[in-house]
Design goal:
Shape: flat
Pfam family, one: Arrestin_C
Organism: Paramecium primaurelia
Strand content: over 45%
Protein name: Arrestin C-terminal-like domain-containing protein
Number of helices: 1
Helix content: under 10%
InterPro entries: Arrestin_C-like, Arrestin_domain-protein
Order of helices and strands: EEEEEEEEEEEEEHEEEEEEEEEEEE
Distance between the termini: 33 Å
Oligomer: single chain
């Protein structure tokens, strides 16, 4: 069965501070004497980390811990966007896995959730298919959309945006129809940040009087979309060194950090997302302004830096120097922070079978009602 409420956005991703524009299509199944149609824009940001520590367990005394606190049916996992009125005792504090008992610790990082509400229509409506245009304002300081869930489900983070259309029957005091859709944003990238660090340079003096190596690198920009190719211009001066450079390693590192409400930072990911090896050079040689390309993976998540989540990327260029003693080798590395933007594909709406009538002469120009609530994390 097709949905009775469909959303169509003019842009797949909106820049923070600009307006989210589009329309929603609504199929009213029957005449309604009095309804209220409300559109809501809501933000949600949090991080969750679940940790387990094994503790002693006496099988002969199963009542040593209240049964309602022990999860026996399945492994404990945190859930995403849990209901607001979830009972506290459903949050199991222990996990009994066979004869092993684990203490479960939950670490939450929360941020205030902003809710914008606008009444589109209030009155009687006849059965039919309707179209409502909307214009939703966003704030300049809103971060990019982000979602992460570890393979075991025990680490999750989200910075999300959603619009919801709800149709209430004021006579019956109930919600007749409701539908939500995700909205994607890109944070504003300040020009000062974009051009602050596009170049790196290092002069490294080798051990045992083996001379020095100079390495420099320059990027045209440090703002990219997933799947983009990074144009790298680099120079290597090995004329003052007595040792060859075996290879040039180029890589992009992703570091994801969750921050809980006690300001404790936990490293969730610290990995190389792409790496290539380029030709080295002999002692006494140099390379000047060599241009090469490094292609980024298409599945990268957007860069983010908030009070609860940090998702950062670093471009690194390293000269691997042949050393007489491996343990005396010191990395010759240039590092530049880069910014990854959110990327989505624009979705089309299938209106086959729809017969649009008057749109009730409504169009959302601004959200007059603004409220702030604390994000609820169970």
């Amino acid at each position: 069965m097709s949905k009775s409420i469909l959303f169509q956005f003019n842009d797949a991703v909106t820049l923070a501070g600009e307006q989210i524009t589009g329309c929603c299509y609504v199929r009213i199944p029957q005449d309604m004497p009095k309804v209220q149609i409300v559109l809501t824009f809501q933000t949600k940001e949090y991080s969750k980390v679940l940790e387990k520590k094994q503790i002693p367990y006496d099988e002969s005394n199963p009542q040593m811990i209240p049964d309602k606190l022990i999860e026996k049916q399945m492994q404990v996992q945190i859930t995403l966007d849990s209901p607001l009125k979830q009972l506290k005792y459903t949050q199991k504090k222990y996990e009994l896995n066979g004869n092993l008992l684990y203490r479960v610790f939950r670490h939450y990082g929360t941020h205030e959730s902003f809710i914008y509400t606008q009444e589109l229509y209030n009155g009687s409506v006849k059965a039919g298919d309707y179209k409502f245009n909307f214009v939703i304002p966003t704030q300049f300081n809103m971060p990019s959309s982000f979602y992460y869930k570890s393979a075991d489900g025990q680490k999750q983070g989200k910075c999300g945006y959603m619009i919801t259309l709800k149709i209430d029957s004021t006579e019956e005091a109930r919600t007749v129809m409701m539908e939500s859709a995700d909205v994607y944003l890109n944070s504003r990238f300040k020009e000062s940040e974009q051009f602050r660090q596009l170049e790196g340079n290092i002069v490294h003096f080798l051990c045992l009087n083996s001379g020095a190596v100079e390495l420099s690198v320059k990027l045209k920009t440090n703002k990219f979309f997933p799947g983009d190719k990074i144009s790298v211009e680099y120079s290597v001066d090995n004329t003052r060194s007595q040792r060859p450079i075996n290879r040039i390693e180029v890589r992009v590192i992703n570091k994801l950090i969750f921050i809980d409400n006690d300001d404790v930072e936990r490293i969730i990911e610290d990995q190389v997302v792409v790496q290539q090896n380029w030709d080295g050079l002999l002692a006494g040689q140099s390379k000047d302004r060599i241009v090469s390309l490094l292609e980024l993976p298409k599945e990268l998540k957007a860069s983010l830096k908030t009070n609860t989540i940090k998702n950062q990327y670093y471009f690194q260029l390293e000269a691997i120097v042949d050393s007489f003693l491996t343990w005396l080798s010191v990395p010759v590395v240039c590092q530049i922070p880069i910014h990854i933007q959110e990327q989505q594909t624009k979705q089309s709406v299938n209106l086959d079978g729809w017969k649009l009538v008057s749109n009730l002469n409504v169009s959302v120009n601004e959200f007059s009602n603004v409220s702030v609530q604390q994000s609820y994390i169970p």
